[in-house]
Model the fold of this input.
Amino acid sequence: MAAIFPGLLTRQGPGVFLDLGYGRVPRTTLETAARWRALNPSLGVVGVELDRERVAAAAAFADARTRFLRGGFDAEVGPVRVLRAMNVLRQYDESAVGGAWAEMGARLEPGGLMIEGTCDPFGRVIAVNLMFKRGASLRWEGVLFSTNHRGDFTPESLQPVLPKNLIHRVRTGEPVHGFFRDWRSAWRSAAPWDSFGPRARFRESARLLAQTQPLDRRPWLARHGYVWWRPGP
Done:
């Protein structure tokens, strides 16, 4: 976020960062607040959870700019600049995803960003939808894949953490199927780079993948373990 969308974080105004469904402990909420406030000290941060006990436990970490509320998609938090919803829709039916997106997107201020997706339990691999509020509607900007290079990463490592709108679509004829087919091929071709370490192989595989798939080609992304797939509407 800080590297790719710095203006979204630094602009002044009432919009807050909303961490929807932060989990058993508010670690992600607090870590994000600390990092983003280095860019914008006045940024408000709100963590929202359905579980009453989790909200009560998180209250110990609240301060003048950080608060924790009990609720769901309908939580009243005011205008939202960035909404993060990780592992929230995993238990939903695919048919319910569009409605959930619309409900969450209604919280965003104009130009706001929604980050919705899934990660493994340790945050080693992540796949998130990126959606911006354009006018009165959300515009899907593709999927951001990430690894911290811990464990034995392969492109297949990301398939179990695909967002709900994609996880059942890795089948012949679907764009996401072609994406993973091409990444597997690029990964095999990048095998000689293993001698330079897993980060080098990841970067080379991303470079090769960009020859056949619509990726954001900013070098910063692959250097830091990201692939941003932007297939269009």
Observations:
- The chain has a mean pLDDT of 93.
- DSSP finds seven helices and eight strands in the chain.
- Residues 57 and 121 are 21 Å apart (CA to CA).
- The beta strands are 16-20, 44-49, 66-70, 80-86, 108-119, 125-134, 137-147, 226-229.
